[in-house]
């Protein structure tokens, strides 16, 4: 055994762990400042889970900025998802979607308090990144519209066909939002061809989103089908069961 190499490996491990810890402290302070956990108690608090998930995606020490950015992104997606899934009326969700589409901070007075907090956190995050070329407002609008479509299905008791469900689910799984943010946080300079490629939603993204959507549905199906006190979005399993009965 090469003792010098072993010592270097231990030193590198400790340095990387210390780097991760500082990043976790950073996002924890951000999370506390948003007041989302306090003001939106119905939403899932997945900060640490999201951070560890991003370590698995971008583990190299030099990608600290991207890990921090991606963690905030994943947390906000979770919060917005829960706003649409488990809280509020359909009218409130429609209004929230409309204001996201307008992207007008002055319009939030029309929203209930918990949605105002959510919108401000999202608005600050997007403005902080200032990715004009990314057209992030449009990306978030598409995501919220997909969430709203699922909410409408729930409130009206409509079970879509598998084709209808998957067309919307490819957006609601938020793969395009995560990919776009992640790509631009590690890419410099940003090339026009790359933006055009993302706008076309290539097959590699589409199929990855499909796998992620179905895996997520499978993992949460038991909870959603047995949570009688909550109105959960339609699952692909429900759509498939309906088409099979027909």
Automatic annotation (TrEMBL):
Keywords: Magnesium, Metal-binding. Gene3D superfamilies: Farnesyl Diphosphate Synthase (1.10.600.10). GO terms for molecular function: magnesium ion binding; terpene synthase activity. It comes from the Eukaryota. The keyword Transferase does not apply. The keyword Disulfide bond does not apply. Residues 34-243 form the Terpene synthase metal-binding domain. One of its GO terms (biological process) is terpenoid biosynthetic process. SUPFAM superfamilies: Terpenoid synthases (SSF48576). InterPro entries: Isoprenoid_synthase_dom_sf, Terpene_cyclase-like_1_C, Terpene_synthase-like, Terpene_synthase_metal-bd. This is Terpene synthase metal-binding domain-containing protein.
């Amino acid at each position: 055994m090469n003792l010098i190499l072993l010592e270097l490996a231990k030193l590198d491990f400790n340095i990387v762990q210390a780097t991760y810890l500082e990043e976790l402290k950073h996002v924890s302070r951000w999370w506390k400042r948003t007041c989302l956990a306090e003001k939106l108690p119905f939403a899932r608090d997945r900060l640490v889970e999201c951070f560890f998930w991003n370590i698995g995606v971008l583990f190299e020490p030099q990608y600290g900025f991207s890990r921090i950015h991606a963690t905030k992104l994943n947390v906000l997606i979770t919060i917005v998802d829960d706003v649409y899934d488990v809280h509020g009326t359909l009218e409130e969700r429609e209004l929230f979607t409309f204001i996201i589409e307008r992207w007008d901070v002055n319009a939030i007075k029309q929203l209930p308090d918990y949605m105002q907090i959510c919108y401000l956190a999202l608005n600050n995050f997007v403005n902080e990144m200032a990715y004009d070329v990314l057209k992030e407002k449009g990306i978030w609008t598409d995501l919220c519209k997909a969430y709203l479509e699922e909410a409408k299905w729930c409130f009206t008791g409509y079970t879509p066909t598998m084709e209808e469900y998957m067309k919307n689910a490819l957006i609601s799984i938020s793969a395009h939002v995560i990919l776009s943010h992640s790509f631009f946080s590690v890419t410099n300079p940003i090339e026009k061809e790359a933006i055009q490629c993302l706008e076309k939603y290539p097959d590699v993204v589409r199929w990855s989103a499909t796998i992620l959507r179905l895996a997520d549905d499978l993992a949460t199906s038991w909870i959603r089908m047995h949570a009688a006190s909550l109105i959960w979005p339609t699952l692909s399993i429900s759509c498939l069961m309906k088409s099979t009965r027909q």
